[in-house]
Amino acid sequence: xxxxxxxxxxxxxxxxxxxxxxxxxxxxxxxxxxxxxxxxxxxxxxxxxxxxxxxxxxxxxxxxxxxxxxxxxxxxxxxxxxxxxxxxxxxxxxxxxxxxxxxxxxxxxxxxxxxxxxxxxxxxxxxxxxxxxxxxxxxxxxxxxxxxxxxxxxxxxxxxxxxxxxxxxxxxxxxxxxxxxxxxxxxxxxxxxxxxxxxxxxxxxxxxxxxxxxxxxxxxxxxxxxxxxxxxxxxxxxxxxxxxxxxxxxxxxxxxxxxxxxxxxxxxxxxxxxxxxxxxxxxxxxxxxx
Length: 290
Known about the structure:
By secondary structure, the protein is an alpha/beta fold. It contains 14 helices and ten strands. Helix 1 runs parallel beside helix 3 and helix 3 packs antiparallel against helix 11.
Protein backbone atom coordinates (compact mmCIF):
# COMPACT_ATOMS: atom_id res chain seq x y z
CA UNK A 1 0.00 0.00 0.00
CA UNK A 2 2.89 2.36 0.72
CA UNK A 3 6.35 2.16 -0.81
CA UNK A 4 9.52 3.69 0.59
CA UNK A 5 12.79 4.30 -1.23
CA UNK A 6 15.95 6.02 -0.02
CA UNK A 7 18.30 7.45 -2.65
CA UNK A 8 21.42 8.86 -1.06
CA UNK A 9 19.94 11.27 1.50
CA UNK A 10 16.53 11.67 -0.14
CA UNK A 11 13.62 9.44 0.90
CA UNK A 12 10.59 8.93 -1.34
CA UNK A 13 7.30 7.81 0.23
CA UNK A 14 4.67 6.77 -2.28
CA UNK A 15 1.08 5.58 -1.74
CA UNK A 16 0.63 2.61 -4.05
CA UNK A 17 -3.11 2.10 -4.65
CA UNK A 18 -3.47 3.34 -8.25
CA UNK A 19 -6.72 1.42 -8.90
CA UNK A 20 -8.27 3.15 -5.87
CA UNK A 21 -6.67 6.47 -6.89
CA UNK A 22 -4.51 6.18 -3.76
CA UNK A 23 -7.52 6.65 -1.46
CA UNK A 24 -6.80 6.88 2.26
CA UNK A 25 -8.06 3.78 4.02
CA UNK A 26 -7.24 3.21 7.67
CA UNK A 27 -4.54 0.71 6.65
CA UNK A 28 -2.97 3.30 4.35
CA UNK A 29 -2.89 5.81 7.21
CA UNK A 30 -1.20 3.22 9.44
CA UNK A 31 1.37 2.44 6.73
CA UNK A 32 2.06 6.12 6.15
CA UNK A 33 2.53 6.66 9.87
CA UNK A 34 5.14 3.91 10.14
CA UNK A 35 6.95 5.01 6.96
CA UNK A 36 7.17 8.65 7.95
CA UNK A 37 8.31 7.67 11.43
CA UNK A 38 10.99 5.51 9.84
CA UNK A 39 12.45 8.12 7.49
CA UNK A 40 12.19 10.99 9.96
CA UNK A 41 14.27 8.96 12.41
CA UNK A 42 16.72 7.78 9.75
CA UNK A 43 19.89 9.83 10.25
CA UNK A 44 20.91 9.31 6.62
CA UNK A 45 17.71 10.92 5.33
CA UNK A 46 17.76 14.71 5.06
CA UNK A 47 14.80 15.38 2.74
CA UNK A 48 11.52 13.51 2.16
CA UNK A 49 9.43 13.48 -1.03
CA UNK A 50 5.78 12.43 -0.68
CA UNK A 51 3.77 11.35 -3.73
CA UNK A 52 1.21 8.91 -5.11
CA UNK A 53 1.50 6.05 -7.57
CA UNK A 54 0.54 6.70 -11.19
CA UNK A 55 -0.33 9.94 -12.96
CA UNK A 56 -4.06 10.09 -12.16
CA UNK A 57 -3.93 10.78 -8.43
CA UNK A 58 -1.74 11.99 -5.62
CA UNK A 59 -4.52 11.09 -3.18
CA UNK A 60 -8.13 11.19 -4.37
CA UNK A 61 -9.39 11.51 -0.79
CA UNK A 62 -10.67 9.28 1.97
CA UNK A 63 -11.79 5.73 1.23
CA UNK A 64 -15.50 6.62 1.00
CA UNK A 65 -16.71 3.02 0.96
CA UNK A 66 -14.82 2.35 4.18
CA UNK A 67 -16.12 5.59 5.74
CA UNK A 68 -19.70 4.71 4.84
CA UNK A 69 -19.54 1.68 7.12
CA UNK A 70 -18.07 3.61 10.08
CA UNK A 71 -20.03 4.62 13.15
CA UNK A 72 -19.80 8.29 14.18
CA UNK A 73 -17.22 7.39 16.83
CA UNK A 74 -15.16 5.37 14.34
CA UNK A 75 -15.31 8.27 11.87
CA UNK A 76 -14.09 10.65 14.56
CA UNK A 77 -11.18 8.32 15.40
CA UNK A 78 -10.38 8.07 11.70
CA UNK A 79 -10.27 11.86 11.49
CA UNK A 80 -8.03 12.08 14.56
CA UNK A 81 -5.65 9.54 13.01
CA UNK A 82 -5.44 11.62 9.84
CA UNK A 83 -4.95 14.81 11.84
CA UNK A 84 -2.09 13.35 13.85
CA UNK A 85 -0.39 12.17 10.68
CA UNK A 86 -0.70 15.52 8.91
CA UNK A 87 0.68 17.17 12.03
CA UNK A 88 3.60 14.74 11.99
CA UNK A 89 4.31 15.75 8.40
CA UNK A 90 4.17 19.49 8.95
CA UNK A 91 6.12 19.26 12.23
CA UNK A 92 8.85 17.13 10.68
CA UNK A 93 12.35 18.50 11.36
CA UNK A 94 13.21 17.38 7.83
CA UNK A 95 11.72 19.12 4.77
CA UNK A 96 8.82 17.20 3.24
CA UNK A 97 8.10 18.05 -0.39
CA UNK A 98 4.73 17.10 -1.88
CA UNK A 99 4.97 15.89 -5.49
CA UNK A 100 1.29 16.17 -6.39
CA UNK A 101 0.42 14.07 -9.40
CA UNK A 102 -3.25 14.30 -10.42
CA UNK A 103 -6.17 14.37 -7.98
CA UNK A 104 -5.55 15.93 -4.56
CA UNK A 105 -9.08 15.97 -3.20
CA UNK A 106 -10.43 16.01 0.34
CA UNK A 107 -7.88 14.25 2.51
CA UNK A 108 -5.47 14.34 -0.42
CA UNK A 109 -5.54 18.12 -0.52
CA UNK A 110 -5.15 18.17 3.28
CA UNK A 111 -2.06 15.93 3.14
CA UNK A 112 -0.63 18.09 0.36
CA UNK A 113 -1.13 21.21 2.47
CA UNK A 114 0.73 19.60 5.38
CA UNK A 115 3.88 19.33 3.24
CA UNK A 116 6.41 22.14 3.57
CA UNK A 117 6.67 22.65 -0.20
CA UNK A 118 4.22 21.55 -2.90
CA UNK A 119 4.85 21.00 -6.62
CA UNK A 120 1.95 19.98 -8.85
CA UNK A 121 1.75 18.18 -12.16
CA UNK A 122 0.03 19.94 -15.05
CA UNK A 123 -3.03 17.69 -14.62
CA UNK A 124 -3.33 18.12 -10.85
CA UNK A 125 -6.76 18.93 -9.44
CA UNK A 126 -7.37 20.28 -5.93
CA UNK A 127 -10.43 20.64 -3.76
CA UNK A 128 -12.26 20.03 -0.48
CA UNK A 129 -15.52 18.48 -1.74
CA UNK A 130 -16.60 17.05 1.64
CA UNK A 131 -19.50 19.49 1.83
CA UNK A 132 -21.15 17.70 -1.12
CA UNK A 133 -21.28 14.56 1.04
CA UNK A 134 -22.70 16.37 4.04
CA UNK A 135 -19.34 16.15 5.80
CA UNK A 136 -16.58 18.44 7.01
CA UNK A 137 -12.91 18.42 6.00
CA UNK A 138 -11.60 16.14 8.74
CA UNK A 139 -7.80 16.20 8.48
CA UNK A 140 -7.27 19.92 9.08
CA UNK A 141 -8.44 21.43 5.79
CA UNK A 142 -10.49 24.12 7.53
CA UNK A 143 -7.31 25.30 9.27
CA UNK A 144 -4.47 24.85 6.76
CA UNK A 145 -6.31 26.12 3.69
CA UNK A 146 -7.00 29.46 5.34
CA UNK A 147 -3.35 29.80 6.34
CA UNK A 148 -2.17 29.14 2.80
CA UNK A 149 -4.63 31.04 0.61
CA UNK A 150 -6.43 33.44 2.98
CA UNK A 151 -9.77 33.26 4.71
CA UNK A 152 -11.88 34.50 1.81
CA UNK A 153 -10.67 31.98 -0.79
CA UNK A 154 -10.59 29.18 1.80
CA UNK A 155 -14.19 29.87 2.75
CA UNK A 156 -15.27 29.76 -0.89
CA UNK A 157 -13.49 26.47 -1.57
CA UNK A 158 -14.74 24.82 1.62
CA UNK A 159 -18.36 25.90 1.30
CA UNK A 160 -18.78 25.30 -2.44
CA UNK A 161 -16.65 22.16 -2.69
CA UNK A 162 -15.48 23.33 -6.11
CA UNK A 163 -12.33 21.91 -7.68
CA UNK A 164 -9.45 23.98 -9.05
CA UNK A 165 -6.72 23.08 -11.52
CA UNK A 166 -2.99 23.46 -10.98
CA UNK A 167 -2.86 26.91 -12.60
CA UNK A 168 -5.45 28.28 -10.20
CA UNK A 169 -3.74 26.50 -7.29
CA UNK A 170 -0.52 28.28 -8.20
CA UNK A 171 -2.28 31.64 -8.58
CA UNK A 172 -3.81 31.51 -5.09
CA UNK A 173 -0.63 30.18 -3.46
CA UNK A 174 -1.74 26.63 -2.79
CA UNK A 175 1.28 25.20 -4.66
CA UNK A 176 4.80 26.47 -5.30
CA UNK A 177 5.05 25.48 -8.95
CA UNK A 178 3.77 23.37 -11.85
CA UNK A 179 5.79 20.81 -13.81
CA UNK A 180 5.21 17.93 -16.20
CA UNK A 181 4.29 14.69 -14.46
CA UNK A 182 7.42 12.99 -15.77
CA UNK A 183 9.61 15.65 -14.16
CA UNK A 184 7.79 15.92 -10.84
CA UNK A 185 10.02 13.72 -8.67
CA UNK A 186 13.15 15.05 -10.35
CA UNK A 187 12.21 18.66 -9.60
CA UNK A 188 11.29 17.83 -6.02
CA UNK A 189 14.74 16.30 -5.61
CA UNK A 190 16.40 19.34 -7.15
CA UNK A 191 14.58 21.71 -4.80
CA UNK A 192 16.08 19.87 -1.85
CA UNK A 193 19.58 20.97 -2.87
CA UNK A 194 20.97 24.45 -2.10
CA UNK A 195 23.13 26.66 -4.36
CA UNK A 196 26.31 24.91 -3.24
CA UNK A 197 24.88 21.51 -4.06
CA UNK A 198 24.34 20.54 -0.42
CA UNK A 199 21.17 18.89 0.84
CA UNK A 200 18.88 21.08 2.92
CA UNK A 201 19.10 19.60 6.43
CA UNK A 202 16.92 19.54 9.50
CA UNK A 203 18.80 22.46 11.09
CA UNK A 204 17.51 24.70 8.33
CA UNK A 205 13.85 24.00 8.90
CA UNK A 206 13.08 23.02 12.51
CA UNK A 207 12.83 26.53 13.98
CA UNK A 208 10.87 27.89 11.02
CA UNK A 209 8.36 25.03 11.04
CA UNK A 210 7.80 25.54 14.76
CA UNK A 211 6.97 29.21 14.24
CA UNK A 212 4.76 28.72 11.18
CA UNK A 213 2.58 25.98 12.65
CA UNK A 214 2.72 26.72 16.35
CA UNK A 215 -1.03 27.41 16.78
CA UNK A 216 -2.53 24.82 14.46
CA UNK A 217 -2.87 22.04 17.08
CA UNK A 218 -5.34 24.08 19.14
CA UNK A 219 -7.30 25.00 16.02
CA UNK A 220 -7.53 21.34 14.99
CA UNK A 221 -8.82 20.37 18.43
CA UNK A 222 -11.59 22.93 18.03
CA UNK A 223 -12.61 21.65 14.60
CA UNK A 224 -12.34 18.01 15.64
CA UNK A 225 -14.77 18.54 18.50
CA UNK A 226 -17.50 18.99 15.86
CA UNK A 227 -16.58 16.08 13.59
CA UNK A 228 -18.36 13.22 15.38
CA UNK A 229 -21.57 15.22 15.63
CA UNK A 230 -21.60 16.24 12.01
CA UNK A 231 -21.06 12.64 10.88
CA UNK A 232 -23.96 11.55 13.08
CA UNK A 233 -26.24 14.30 11.79
CA UNK A 234 -25.27 13.50 8.19
CA UNK A 235 -26.37 9.92 8.83
CA UNK A 236 -29.85 10.80 10.01
CA UNK A 237 -30.97 14.02 8.33
CA UNK A 238 -30.77 15.97 5.09
CA UNK A 239 -27.37 14.64 4.10
CA UNK A 240 -28.30 11.03 4.73
CA UNK A 241 -28.23 10.01 1.08
CA UNK A 242 -25.11 11.91 0.01
CA UNK A 243 -22.49 9.18 0.58
CA UNK A 244 -24.60 6.33 -0.89
CA UNK A 245 -25.34 8.56 -3.90
CA UNK A 246 -21.62 9.21 -4.36
CA UNK A 247 -20.80 5.49 -4.24
CA UNK A 248 -23.63 4.68 -6.66
CA UNK A 249 -22.72 7.59 -8.99
CA UNK A 250 -26.15 9.24 -8.89
CA UNK A 251 -27.69 12.45 -7.61
CA UNK A 252 -28.53 12.44 -3.92
CA UNK A 253 -32.06 12.72 -2.56
CA UNK A 254 -33.44 13.66 0.85
CA UNK A 255 -34.47 10.37 2.44
CA UNK A 256 -35.89 11.55 5.77
CA UNK A 257 -36.29 14.77 7.70
CA UNK A 258 -36.71 14.05 11.37
CA UNK A 259 -38.76 16.26 13.75
CA UNK A 260 -36.83 19.27 15.04
CA UNK A 261 -37.50 18.12 18.60
CA UNK A 262 -35.13 15.18 18.02
CA UNK A 263 -32.12 17.48 17.66
CA UNK A 264 -30.46 20.27 19.67
CA UNK A 265 -31.11 23.91 18.59
CA UNK A 266 -27.78 24.12 16.73
CA UNK A 267 -29.08 21.67 14.11
CA UNK A 268 -32.54 23.13 13.55
CA UNK A 269 -31.51 24.86 10.31
CA UNK A 270 -30.34 21.53 8.96
CA UNK A 271 -33.48 19.67 10.00
CA UNK A 272 -35.59 22.42 8.46
CA UNK A 273 -33.81 21.74 5.19
CA UNK A 274 -32.28 25.21 4.95
CA UNK A 275 -28.68 24.03 4.73
CA UNK A 276 -26.56 20.95 4.30
CA UNK A 277 -25.05 19.63 7.57
CA UNK A 278 -21.57 19.72 6.09
CA UNK A 279 -22.11 23.33 5.05
CA UNK A 280 -23.04 24.37 8.59
CA UNK A 281 -20.08 22.51 10.05
CA UNK A 282 -17.69 24.20 7.65
CA UNK A 283 -19.16 27.61 8.54
CA UNK A 284 -18.70 26.87 12.25
CA UNK A 285 -15.13 25.67 11.79
CA UNK A 286 -14.16 28.65 9.63
CA UNK A 287 -15.76 31.12 12.03
CA UNK A 288 -13.59 29.72 14.81
CA UNK A 289 -10.38 30.47 12.92
CA UNK A 290 -8.01 33.01 14.46
